[in-house]
Amino acid sequence: MASLDQDSQTAVPDHFHHAETAALTHMIADMLQRLTSHNDQIPLSSSTLTRFHSRAPPAISIVDYLRRIVKYASVERVCLLILLVYIDRVCERNRSFTISSLTVHRFIITGVTVACKALCDSFLQNSMYAKVGGISTKELNVLEIEFLTLIGWDLTASAERLQDYYRNLVRQHPGFRMVPHAEVLNPVVGVVGSREARKANSSDWTGTSKFVEAAENAENQMEQHRLEQEQHQSLLLHLQLEQQQQPQQQQELGTPSQMQQHIETDRHQLDVKSTGGVPVPVRPITDVSSAFYDGYSHMNSSGSSRREVDARMNA
What we know:
Elements: H1 2-7, E1 10-13, H2 21-39, H3 62-73, H4 77-93, H5 104-119, H6 126-133, H7 137-151, H8 159-172, E2 176-179, H9 181-185, H10 195-202, H11 210-253, H12 256-274, H13 302-314
Parallel strand pairs: 1-2
């Protein structure tokens, strides 16, 4: 009998990070449906009315409403699961508040909005969440403030606490059973139920949580930023050393006039070596833009060139 019950149940991973969003949505919606059915029996009074109460229960079911939000707002697993934590916190701080068919829809869209803002690096604008939830942006803004006041701005939860909620959620649902993640990946240990369930169970459950991927990306970006900072510091140190060496180099070279004198001395020594030890007067450089052989332009004529060569050879 126990084997038949297990065969009719859908196997889900033992950690909520590996759970399929569709399965998590179904379990949360089923729990909310059972909760609202129980609380609807509590008499409603004017003293217990809140901004989350509607005049009549919305026509859309809880599961369809939650699936709509997950589909069009790209809600993460942790933002879905933490809704259960929010319900307990709000009801613990406000004894008169109850999740009923009149409050559950507005509570869901408001809880998803604040959860995405508190837990996700990227999230939508309130206008988009309001459009997905079927309310006006002005109303969502008011509900968000009311929600934060009711919960005392306590919007985060540890991974261990979320895992406890996930474990209890699976245990309370008759259509799911928790198995190790490796067994879920094994096609032999699958669901012997409907075709859709077998198809979902044979699909890849290894999708790492986007929060884990975001953390890894953040670490890589931090490492890259650290390397860039080191390169920047190294470059600054190199520039500082160059600035410290510039006065010493300037002192070794001397003033501009001294530098010009060094250049003329070097040219004079070069001319002496090239003429076999015979000193050749060196013209002082007055215009560095003039041609080097401009003083011998008269050698362009054949006669003067020949006389100049003969004179140098007879010298």
